[in-house]
Amino acid sequence: MTTRGGFSLIIVTVIAAGRASESAETVAHRLTAECELRSIDKNATQIIVVSEEIDKVRGELGSIDGVDILAQRAACFPPKLFVADMDSTMIGQECIDELAAEVGLKDKVAAITERAMRGELDFAEALRERLALLEGLEVSVIDRLLFNRITPNPGARELIEGLKAAGVRCVLVSGGFTHFAKPIGELLGFDRVVANRLGVVDGKLTGKVEGDIVDADTKRRVLLEEAGDEVERSVAIGDGANDLKMMEVAGLGIAYRAKPKVAAQADARLNHASLDSLLVALLPRA
Known about the structure:
- The chain has helices spanning about 20-30, 55-60, 95-100, 105-115, 125-130, 140-150, 155-165, 180-190, 215-225, 245-250, 260-265, 280, and strands at about 5, 5-15, 35-40, 45-50, 70-75, 80-85, 170-175, 190-200, 205-210, 235-240, 250-255, 270.
- With about 290 residues, the chain is of the alpha/beta class.
- The chain folds into two domains: about 1-75, Histidine kinase CheA-like, P2 response regulator-binding domain (Alpha-Beta Plaits, 2-Layer Sandwich), CATH 3.30.70; about 80-285, HAD superfamily/HAD-like (Rossmann fold, 3-Layer(aba) Sandwich), CATH 3.40.50.
- The strands form two sheets. Strands 9-8-7-6-10-11-12 form a seven-stranded mixed β-sheet, with helices on both faces. Strands 1, 2, 3, 4 and 5 form a five-stranded antiparallel β-sheet that branches.
- A hairpin with a 2-residue loop joins strand 3 and strand 4.
- Helix 4 runs antiparallel to helix 5.
């Protein structure tokens, strides 16, 4: 049910380890609209809000230390499409920074990465600048990095498994590289992977990307292409400025441990709980 008495419903999910009910009561007291609490378990409670003003509801939610609070329109629930960034979202690393470590330039490259993710630099230009520093690096080091240093963020695999079991299509779209994204996408269970193609000649990086760069516009385009006429039933999650355009058009845009600019503009934030905690917010409970 997405309406009650002619008004739209909004689902607010409060995720808090061991204190969801108490936290939800605090949140409910802040809301001026009619609402009711539905306890899921000790770690999650949902508040059903009768209101057409999602922005007003989000503005009233506020924050509680150690608690994640996500509000979405009931009309967007449950999603049919989940689109995720890779670096620092589905995995805990920035792959280009790990490549740079192989040539002793991690600090330099990581500083550029950080500024690009904060939206302080043009993403495409920053990518070209960083890649040029890696020219001549043996492409074989990527397999070693995948084995030794690249790790999924907590709950990433469980999140994708849960969404797919519920019939949600999952797409990984990354400003990183297919050499990383394809095996990570396969490991986590994504249905489709979109990422940049590293230029390689004679087993060494050329320092360039083959074809068009996957940037914020690409991410937005992929989401809209995948969502078709049901974009409101889509979820996008990311941490950097190049994720904002896809998050803005999605039915629900979630910032994961995000840069300040991204967190400020996102519909919701996941700052504390693991990725699989999103299942309680995105899928109906038995």
